[in-house]
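>> Question from a student workshop board

For tomorrow's exercise we were told to take the sequence and the ligand below, predict the bound structure, and bring the output to class. My setup keeps failing. Could a helper post the expected result so I can at least see what it should look like? The ligand is phosphoenolpyruvate.
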Amino acid sequence: MRKPIIAGNWKMNNNVAATKALVADLAPLVKDATCDVVICTPYTSLAAAVEATKGTNIKVGAENVHWAEKGAFTGEISADMLVELGVEYVIVGHSERRQYFGETDATVNARTKAALAKGLKVILCVGETLEEREAGITAEVVRRQTKVGFAGIPASELDNVVIAYEPVWAIGTGKTATAQEANDTIKVIRDCMAELYCDKCAEERVRIQYGGSMNAKNAEELMAQPQIDGGLIGGASLKAVDFSIVVAAGK
Ligand code: PEP
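>> Workshop helper replied:
Here is what the output should look like for this input. Compare the format with yours to find the bug.
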């Protein structure tokens, strides 16, 4: 019913040469994937990634986008600029942006709207910190991030936004949420989407990925959970074979 989507988040890794080499290794390994396959690359590698993935089933995404169309926003990139390059997806609200670059729920919402307005598909990240989990407020946090993130976004856009549930304490740490924990929190997010939109929308159209140290070893168990519709993969997306094993689990 909900087609799984496995997306790689390369973060600040892979220059143009490394991008060409990784796509060349990856493309044959994932060519028969039954899920959607996306690689999100640094801005400077996007053009090379779009070129290298032509004729393959791999889609290309950026790792951020600004909410304004243009103007005095030094160092930022607009949705139009990404579209011009042939980019189809963009990650918004990754926890590293929230943690290190002052991203808030409101800016996540603004970026998401701007990206959708230009026809980009958005991977909108939510997730609690370790302190929040230990304080027992995980559900409250992901519900707030979801509600504000989706404010003013019409139901007609639900096929164009993928939610990535990424517990901050599991990103790049080697600590994975248990499959049960991930499934339970994703259910909280899906229920929140049902409240915001409708039961059928949440059940049939809202894809929710898990992200946080997902890799070739644990992908199958995570993907077997009924609520998990794919993964946002950091470290393991930098190695073609590892990423292809995660992609194979995305069925
Ligand atoms: C991420 O960057 O979104 C991520 C989940 O990273 P990692 O897989 O390395 O934990």
